[in-house]
Amino acid sequence: MFTLAHDAKAHFLNRAPAWEIGLFNLGDDCLDAECAKRPGDGGTIGDLSMKSDASAAEGSPSDSGIGRGEKTVSPGGPGIGLTSTSSDALAVGALMEVVGSRLLLEPILSSAIVATGLLVRQASPAQRERWLPVLTAGRAVLAFADAQPGCVWHAGTLRGQARAVLHGDVASAVVVAALDAATQRPMLCLVEAGATPSLRRRAYRLVDGRGAADIDFDGLSPDVLAVDDDAAAAIDTALAEAAVAQCAEALGCVRALLSATREHLAVRQQFGRPLGANQVLQHRAVEMFMLQEEIAAFTARAQQALALPAAERDAIVAGAKAYVCRAARQVANDAVQLHGGVGITEELSVSHHFRRLMVNATLFGDRDAQFARFLAGVEGGAR
Length: 383
Hints:
The protein is an alpha+beta fold. The chain has 13 helices and 13 strands.
């Protein structure tokens, strides 16, 4: 199962860098009050156990279970999906912040959150019984491919292409959103990614180091999970969950970028004094901090919106991701600029956070698509 780090107070201390705690003078009373507001008890956040161990903090796959894709999934319940309770959304948010800050490469978003969530909600009892035990044990990985309209289901077979499927290079099976040729409506199906002439995949690395694949389907007979309105609703829910998780991941990246930038400004010397002594650079750092807090606020609102009706949820989530993509990219740009030439080197984490944010902005609906969806939702609500 996912075992992240530490008790509730330590979790909050780790979320807020030491300089922020000093800036706002948060004493033990304030921390105790903040921890009391957070979900879970006995050192948990939502449904995810928070245990302190160095390997989890470093993202080690050997002890934390994250590298093996392990998760706690109830065959009849919501699993690690985000929509059952607000505490689930906060728990996954805490997890994704760690993914962003530590730049984890494991298929947590694609497999544990999106594809497994679809499987739990839409699969038959027999399908769940087949897949959930191996997913829980970490012996299988799922991927999600939104292949509409390039992939078509007709006469019981699947034909078409899915491009840039995140972690499709290591997936044991792929949950595919395709188009039903007869009804021109979406459908969901599950395709095993074994060695077969009917499925070809070309694996490669994205610029941030994560794996992906282009997958060709040529006459496969998939397991159907959902059709028509059920499929459309399930796909919309999965994309909303992915967007909210990506907002939290962006927040983790931004916290790491701001921490690294502040340290650089304090340590790097020019003309006998720290870079941070220049007021204009202090202002830039403050602007980065304000964007971080805005990203945190948008992320929290998007997490709350997952419990709302679909139309209202989709508008809020789309607006949140559109803004977070823009704000996080601005923080990344500033972090690189304030570091100078070293900010784009392989040896410094700043460049890797920049790439992760750049890639995430194109996955599961880019900024322009999300903003258009937000406008459509606002206009629809106004009517």
